[in-house]
Specification:
Shape: globular
Structural class: alpha+beta
Number of strands: 14
CATH topology of the largest domain: Jelly Rolls
Helix content: 25-40%
Strand order of the largest sheet: 2-13-9-6-11-4-3
Order of helices and strands: EEHEEEEEEEEEHEEHHEHHHHHHH
Largest sheet: 7 strands, mixed
Distance between the termini: 26 Å
Number of helices: 11
Radius of gyration: 21 Å
CATH architecture of the largest domain: Sandwich
């Protein structure tokens, strides 16, 4: 829904992501965006933002520098050249902040805790998912994300974050897909559970605590991890086919325009013209990339904007409805209730 983000071919240099995030949590909006769990890495003080300017893309080695939480362990030395592991203590609440993308396959594992996370790519709609102990996120990387989250309980959080080197993952793709490895890509998958994957991550988590990590052991577990991802979360598709979804730059062009023109009447032909496609073709690829048809995606953007205005301003419900594209107050109230479970007035009273 990221990603909604788009997928990434994992052979050679990084390409714009082309497939949408697979949200295993059926109660959350599909798409995303994935680098969700880095939102867990905010500072313990609500509202603290990234301490430095955030680039769109950074290296695996520098990625931790943009986190604003407390890192309690990290893999260092020759054992961790192909598999990078960091462990963070997680705050109770974080305001919106941005994390840069990495080009390598990325895994996030919630080792403890329970929270609600939101993420978005660019100016797209916020995507929500519930995180509990054992929740996993996998992403092919490729685009920065805005994130925010809040704890749903008192249990402390620990996040284990693993980045697999591209050469190691490419070797796994060749092992699994053979001659088709060049067309294989890792899917973005959010909010799922995988006992075998957690077992491998736990072994790496234990090894990082050792006084001297074994290069042979870390590489062996890293290889098993890469093969497990290739077998279960990668797929082969023709880069030129509809299965690949919209190219990232075209998707961003359309979603940014939608976010900046919320009050405009929905017009599928106008959106399709922006990326040079027929309405039928565009509608199909947009839904494949984000998990939502364009019309529903616009509704999600409008309701997200309305929620923000209800929280942050004293403007009337009618004024807010007009600003986000609903001149009929009754229609605005029906749409808002369908998306949130509350009327606009009830939503404001609960803040």
């Amino acid at each position: 829904m990221s990603r909604g983000g788009c997928g990434q071919t994992l052979r050679g240099a990084a390409h714009p992501r082309e497939g949408g995030r697979d949200h295993r949590d059926e109660g959350t909006p599909a798409a995303f965006v994935f680098q969700l769990l880095p939102a867990l890495l905010g500072d313990a003080m609500t509202g603290l933002m990234n301490p430095k300017k955030v680039p769109d893309l950074t290296s695996a080695e520098a990625w931790d520098d943009y986190n604003v939480g407390k890192r309690i362990a990290v893999g260092k030395g020759p054992a961790w050249r192909e598999v990078r592991l960091s462990v963070f203590e997680l705050p109770q609440v974080t305001e919106t902040f941005t994390m840069p993308a990495v080009t390598e396959p990325f895994i996030a594992w919630a080792a403890s805790g329970h929270a609600e996370f939101e993420e978005r790519e660019g100016k797209g709609a916020w995507k929500r998912t519930r995180v509990k102990k054992g929740t996993l996120f996998v992403t092919a990387g490729g685009a920065p994300y805005d994130m925010r989250w809040r704890s749903l309980g008192a249990e402390p959080f620990e996040a284990v974050l693993v980045i697999i080197s591209t050469p190691l993952f490419n070797a796994a793709l060749e092992d699994v897909f053979g001659a088709k490895a060049a067309d294989a890509r890792l899917r973005d998958v959010s909010g799922f559970e995988d006992v075998r994957l957690v077992s491998l991550l736990q072994q790496l988590r234990d090894e990082v605590a050792a006084s001297a990590a074994s290069p042979l052991f870390v590489r062996s577990v890293g290889q098993a991890l890469a093969v497990h991802l290739a077998r279960n979360y990668a797929e082969v598709s023709d880069a030129g086919s509809e299965a690949s979804g919209l190219p990232a730059f075209k998707l961003r062009r359309v979603t940014d325009w939608m976010a900046e023109n919320l009050a405009e009447e929905f017009n599928l032909a106008r959106l399709a013209d922006q990326v040079g496609m027929s309405e039928f073709h565009f509608n199909r690829l947009f839904k494949r990339a984000t998990g939502l048809p364009p019309s529903q995606y616009l509704i999600r953007l409008r309701v997200d904007a309305a929620r923000r205005l209800l929280r942050e301003t004293t403007r009337s419900v009618i004024e807010i409805g007009n600003e986000v594209g609903y001149s009929n107050p009754s229609h605005f109230a029906r749409v808002f209730r369908k998306e949130t479970g509350l009327s606009p007035s009830d939503y404001r009273r609960q803040i």
